[in-house]
TrEMBL record, chain A:
PANTHER family: PROTEIN TRIGALACTOSYLDIACYLGLYCEROL 3, CHLOROPLASTIC (PTHR43023:SF3). The keyword Transport applies. GO terms for molecular function: ATP binding; ATP hydrolysis activity. The keyword ATP-binding applies. Coiled coil: none annotated. Residues 2-237 form the ABC transporter domain. This is ABC transporter ATP-binding protein. Keywords: ATP-binding, Nucleotide-binding, Transport. It comes from the Bacteria.
UniProtKB/TrEMBL annotation, chain B:
Belongs to the MlaE permease family. It comes from Thalassorhabdomicrobium marinisediminis. This is ABC transporter permease. It is a multi-pass membrane protein. Pfam families: MlaE. GO terms for cellular component: ATP-binding cassette (ABC) transporter complex. It comes from the Bacteria. GO terms for molecular function: phospholipid transporter activity. Keywords: Cell inner membrane, Cell membrane, Membrane, Transmembrane, Transmembrane helix, Transport. It is found in: Cell inner membrane; Membrane. The chain crosses the membrane at residues 45-72, 148-173, 202-221, 233-252. Could be part of an ABC transporter complex.
Length: 248, 259
């Protein structure tokens, strides 16, 4: 479904992606792990066209992502951002129904609101939240609203960028369970970026480790502990000693 | 030594030209969205209210005090060569041709440009701009075009209101403080104002509104990460808008009134 081949991306002198090859089959939940600053977010932003790689190809269903109708392409995706990225000036329900209030997926306002409230219910938030502004919500609630927005238009592909960062362990567990349930329920293809191993184990069908600008290891989540790769082992056990330098 | 100095000057010139190029492209992209659907009417209406309606108090107060001070200055200066009687005419011409549009433009640069730049820069820092893209919404179309269009259309109205209130400020000082006859003051004001004065004022308003909103959007969209990036974008947008408004004022004055 999603295939990255020899993708390179630099920011000035800093070569972040140095030949990434990755394949995410349809209906699979892929979790990309790796240290901070290794280019995990750049990787998914490259798929969405938010970042333009200098070299390599990225295809979705065999078609290059930079060709064809961009709106139709983006309509296939939902994304939960690291900080939720909710629009401050809009109430919660309009954030969730943003795509349903404008553009090709536009619905009548009442219908869009009803869908937003249903999606909020799906992520465990009551209708009383619908008319509040994002700034009035806790971090965990904002993440849930971001999740509701990501799934509002029932996309085929969902990206989750650090979904549990900044949350307490209980709320992180709630978000992990929600992601797992929603991805299975919708039959969506998912890529999750995280360095939270609890989250990775809860969400993933397969795991890929990004290090040094390349995919270092990829395999089923069940094989993670027996990967035999010293980089993966150091990372998943959180050891300071090993091939990955602790101070980068 | 000389080579280093030349390189430094050359570097500055190249940076300036690059910035000019970016700004030109940004302006072209903004205008190109005017011709391509969809058009976000709700965002346009909100921008009209934010930029127009909510700027009325600051525009009114600025114009009122400026008109009053202008009347006092003209009266005191005119007394040196026995020309105190020209206060109504000079206040009217001064407010409508110059002070009204320029001061309203600068107040809008302070109030609106800074607000737009800070809002968009914060949206960029918090990935809201990226979120817009993933929701199939073009940030230029959703954020920039409504604000630039609203400012361009509403600024002539603000300048018109500012002109009238400024003249009224002069009238208040002239009649209450300087002893002018009220009916004669109004007649002199009306007799000496020409249609071109009013047209030039409104055209300047539209141009200054365009500049003010465009600078806010440009610096917001190009801000760097973090609180410092937002602060720098806000400061730079106001400085650039103010300087460009004053430069545009000179060019438009030359175009309208050079013999």
């Amino acid at each position: 479904m999603i295939r990255l081949t020899d993708v390179h991306k630099s920011f000035g002198e800093n070569a972040v992606l140095r030949g990434v090859d990755l394949h995410v089959p349809r209906d699979e939940s892929m979790v990309v792990i790796g240290g901070s600053g290794t280019g995990k977010s750049v990787l998914i932003k490259s798929v969405l066209g938010l970042v333009t790689p200098e070299r390599g190809t990225i295809t979705v269903d065999g078609r290059p992502v930079d060709q064809g109708d961009r709106d139709a392409f983006l309509a296939r995706f939902g994304m939960l951002f690291q900080g939720a990225a909710l629009f401050d000036s809009l109430p919660v329900w309009q954030n969730v129904a943003f795509r349903l209030l404008r553009g090709a997926l536009r619905r009548p306002r009442d219908e869009a609101r009803a869908i937003a409230i249903e999606k909020l219910r799906r992520v465990g938030l009551g209708p009383d939240v619908a008319d509040r502004l994002p700034a009035e919500l806790s971090g965990g609630m904002q993440k849930r609203v971001g999740l509701a927005r990501a799934i509002a238009a029932e996309p085929e592909i969902i990206f989750f960028d650090e979904p549990t960062t900044g949350l307490d362990p209980i709320m992180a567990g709630v978000i992990n369970d929600l992601i797992r349930e929603i991805v299975s329920e919708m039959g969506a293809t998912a890529i999750t970026i995280t360095h939270d191993m609890t989250s990775a184990r809860a969400i993933a069908d397969r795991v890929a480790m990004l290090h040094g600008g390349k995919i270092r290891w990829t395999g089923p989540v069940a094989d993670l502990d027996a990967s035999g790769d010293p980089y993966v082992e150091q990372f998943i056990h959180g050891r300071a000693d090993g091939p990955i330098k602790a101070v980068r | 030594m000389i080579g280093a100095a030349l390189a430094s000057v050359g570097g500055a010139v190249l940076a300036l030209l690059a910035a000019l190029g970016r700004l030109t492209l940004f302006t072209g992209q903004t205008l190109s969205h005017l011709l391509r659907p969809p058009f976000y009417g709700r965002e346009f209406a909100l921008a009209l209210v934010q930029i127009g309606y909510f700027s009325l108090p600051v525009v009114g107060l600025t114009a009122l005090f400026t008109g009053g001070a202008l009347a006092l200055q003209i009266y005191a200066g005119g007394a040196r060569f026995s020309a105190e009687a020209v206060v109504p005419q000079i206040v009217a011409i001064g407010m409508v041709r110059e002070l009204g549009p320029v001061l309203v433009g600068l107040m809008i640069a302070a109030r609106v440009t800074s607000s737009i730049a800070a809002e968009i820069a914060t949206m960029k820092v918090t990935e809201q701009i990226d979120a817009l893209v993933t929701l199939s919404t073009h940030p230029m179309k959703y954020l920039t075009l409504p604000r630039v269009l609203a400012a361009t259309l509403v600024m002539p109205l603000l300048v018109g209101v500012g002109d009238v209130i400024g003249i009224f400020g002069g009238y208040l000082v002239g009649t209450e403080r300087l002893g002018f006859n009220a009916a004669a003051y109004i007649r002199n004001t009306a007799d000496f104002l020409e249609p071109l004065d009013i047209v030039s004022s409104l055209v300047k308003g539209a141009a200054f509104g365009f500049i003010a909103a465009l600078m806010g959007c440009y610096y917001g969209m190009h801000s760097n990460r973090g609180a410092m990036g937002v602060g720098r974008a806000t400061k730079s947008s106001v400085v650039a808008a103010a300087v460009l408004i004053l430069a545009a004022n000179f060019i438009l004055t030359e175009a309208f009134f050079s013999a």
